[in-house]
Amino acid sequence: MAEVFPLERIPAPTREIASRLLAAGHEAWFVGGAVRDVMMERLLPRRVAGAGAADFDIATSALPEQVRALFERTVPIGIEHGTVAVLDRHGTAHEVTTFRRDVATDGRRAVVAFGVSLDEDLARRDFTINAIAVHPASGEVRDPFGGREDIGARLLRAVGDPPTRFLEDRLRVLRGLRFAAAFDFSIHPPTWAALRDAASDVANLSRERVRDEWLKMLASSTPSVGVGLWRRAGVLGEVWPELAGLDEAVGERLDAVASRDPVLLTAAAFRYAGAGPEAAEAAARRLRFSNKDAARAREVVAGLMTPLPAPGSSREVRRWLVEHRAVARDVIAASEPRERRADLLAAVDVVLASGDPLTVHELAVTGDDLAAAGLVPGRAMGNVLRRLLEEVLDEPSRNTKDQLLARAKELS
């Protein structure tokens, strides 16, 4: 008996869009990462993590202009490639893409032609596990390239000729590594050979696309697996020469970081590979990280280069927080030994909850208060405020206006 897909797993608004396409006389099939992920739940003995795709997209024989004429609210998000976003009654976008085939590609952008069959459309996809389609009315599964068998074998295999697939889109090199890492799949030898041959072409991709794949890969439960695949495929040095010293043993330290935040993991990887704060920030900016994330990478690396305070010493914790408050939890999450993390986090929380001042702006006196007490504004006053903070960091009980004003007069 032919396998029937559990259509109840597909959101009702997506089913409604597909039903309208069918009623208008067009073909419509569910495709995308969500189809793959449901298949994995059914075919594998244990559930595997998804790789970032959660939507049931729709592939159709309808041309883009026919899709737009059929629905009230649409957005042409990639109409030159046949993709129209159909907005449901809640304003949620659902991608509907016309069956297509590539007629030209430079490895980054493709020129496509419409008027082809579903099987021809599936033949242009990257890996067999992503080339499975489901009929919205019957639940029939269309799997012309054996994607279900590959899921059962935990195997990542390119559709058709592997070198051709990677030549069509160089990003497939990084997507393949991400899928293999996230699903704990082995890579079919011919696919692996073609992937490695195409690895140097990653340098021709936009930095934003490479960055996004890197961050998605790190978000897996075992980021060291993905980093190891990047290294063995020859991609890591192309993208991050700063991580050339990140061998397999060191890379496994990433799995011990108490967070799956990919920006934090990137910063930790820099530190584990021996990069300093400035090098980490420069590398993050080179790959088009936001200014905020690049600065965060620098601060985390700086924090990991600083000895951690003793959890039992509030004074040490306060002084450490003066420099690292913004990234304190990040630094602790990536620090060693791991056994100290919980105690140090608790100590940090106590200090922050106490409201003890960590900057001159948090002291119980201001520059205006000192001026009113007779101190002359300027560099000397700034030095006095810094001295007051030093003393308050040692003994927070001194942080009262009367005590600080009296002490300021002694120091002036």
Structure commentary:
The protein has 412 residues and is of the alpha+beta class. Among the domains are: 1-156, Beta Polymerase, domain 2 (2-Layer Sandwich); 355-412. The protein is 49% helix and 10% strand. The strands form four sheets. The protein has a five-stranded mixed sheet. It has a two-stranded antiparallel sheet with strand order 6-7. The protein has a two-stranded antiparallel sheet with strand order 8-9. Helix 13 packs across helix 15. The mean pLDDT is 92.
Outline the secondary-structure elements.
Elements: H1 12-23, E1 28-31, H2 33-43, E2 57-60, H3 64-70, E3 74-78, E4 83-87, E5 93-98, E6 101-105, E7 110-113, H4 118-123, E8 133-134, E9 141-142, H5 147-152, E10 155-156, H6 162-168, H7 171-183, E11 186-187, H8 189-198, H9 207-218, H10 223-233, H11 236-239, H12 248-251, H13 262-272, H14 277-286, H15 291-304, H16 314-324, H17 328-334, H18 341-354, H19 367-372, H20 379-394, H21 401-411
Parallel strand pairs: 2-5, 10-11
Antiparallel strand pairs: 1-2, 3-4, 4-5, 6-7, 8-9
Features:
412 residues; alpha+beta; Beta Polymerase, domain 2; five-stranded mixed sheet; two-stranded antiparallel sheet; 11 strands
